[in-house]
Write a structure and sequence with these properties.
By secondary structure, the chain is of the alpha/beta class. It has 2 domains: 107 residues, Nucleotidyltransferase, domain 5; 178 residues, Exopolyphosphatase. Domain 2 (Nucleotidyltransferase, domain 5, 2-Layer Sandwich). Helix content is 44%, strand content 22%. The protein is built from 12 helices and 11 strands. The protein has a 6-stranded mixed beta sheet with strand order 8-7-6-9-11-10, sandwiched between helices. A 5-stranded mixed beta sheet has the order 3-2-1-4-5, sandwiched between helices. The longest helix has 24 residues. The two termini are 20 Å apart.
């Protein structure tokens, strides 16, 4: 069997074509991504904008060509945050089906968190049973707490880099009051997360750097920070997976990027094109979470929902 998984995110569209491997993992055949910013211009009244949907469907048409030319047996296409929330979600999925033949399933935040964790666990090498895993997306951020039995708790928080950027970062480069408002909103969401963890009867110290837990991060912001930290001119997943990124370096990069204009950030080789503005809220989420939970480092993984979708289909464990 050869599988294709598609992640239709608020900011990024991703495709993985893979086969089961002998070690119960996956053998990647093809990996592609496109920043289509499906959540750009989103409104509660109208949902996703026509322009954003056109960009995304055009990219999906390109993905379909890759799928057809690579002998894929089964296509699994899942949509997350912005498609979950949009009032025109059904119309978007209908148009995708008509133009590409791809049938899109919308998953809940909890399902997204569990599938992402399956993907992360397929490549992680830290050996610790207790982890706080963070998956920073364009429309939401997933926080997954694990123990020796697997998932202990998970929450999907409405705190995504696309919406944060459009709500707070109006100037180029952003001014101090915009950054203050951005950090205040992120801090408030993380504070609410800590309250939920406590109300669930979990000792917060257990999932902190002081308690010996490991902080693990996946998705575009964190993998980009790992690429920046290594000064990678060409992105290399092999050098990203299990890379340990120090908190001091995250803070240094955040402070370095803040005063830059978008044009100046475009010239930074390790910064993925299309992520020049989003790296600011993404870095802030990473840094403020590390501060709130007392972590001095984060283990970076370039695996998550895409891998989890296929592994779940093989093992039928989550959905």
């Amino acid at each position: 069997m050869r599988y294709a998984s598609i992640d239709i995110g608020t900011n990024t569209l991703r495709l993985l074509i893979a086969e089961p491997s002998t070690d119960k993992g996956l053998k990647p055949i093809l990996y592609k991504r496109a920043i289509t910013r499906l959540g750009g211009g989103y409104s509660d009244e109208l949902g996703m904008s026509d322009e954003a949907m056109r960009r995304t469907i055009k990219a999906l048409e390109g993905f379909k060509k890759e799928i057809d030319s690579n002998g894929v047996t089964k296509v699994l296409a899942f949509a997350t945050s912005v498609v979950r929330r949009a009032q025109n979600s059904s119309a978007f999925r209908k148009e995708v089906l008509e133009k590409t033949g791809i049938d899109v399933t919308v998953i809940t935040g909890d399902e997204e968190a569990r599938l992402s964790l399956q993907g992360v666990m397929s490549v992680i090498k830290d050996g610790s049973p207790e982890r706080l895993v963070i998956d920073i997306g364009g429309g939401s951020t997933e926080f997954i707490f694990t123990d020796k039995d697997g998932v202990a708790l998970e929450w999907s928080m409405e705190m995504g880099v696309v919406h944060l950027t459009e709500r707070h970062l109006k100037s180029d480069p952003p001014v101090a009051k915009e950054i203050a408002a951005l950090e205040a909103e992120i801090g408030s969401v993380i504070g609410e997360l800590r309250k939920r963890v406590s109300r669930a009867g979990v000792d917060l110290e257990r999932y902190s750097g002081k308690g010996g837990a490991i902080f693990v991060g996946t998705a575009g912001t964190i993998t980009t920070l790992a690429a920046l930290d290594q000064d990678l001119a060409v992105y290399d997943r092999g050098r990203i997976n299990n890379y340990v990124l120090k908190k001091a370096n995250v803070e240094r990069m955040y402070r370095w990027l803040l005063p830059m204009s978008l044009k100046e950030r475009e010239k930074v080789l390790s910064l993925e094109k299309g992520r020049e503005d989003l790296i600011i809220p993404g870095s802030a989420i990473t840094l403020l979470t590390m501060e709130a939970f007392g972590f001095s480092s984060i283990t970076v993984v370039d695996a998550g929902l895409l891998e989890g979708i296929i592994l779940n289909e093989i093992n039928k464990t989550v959905l």
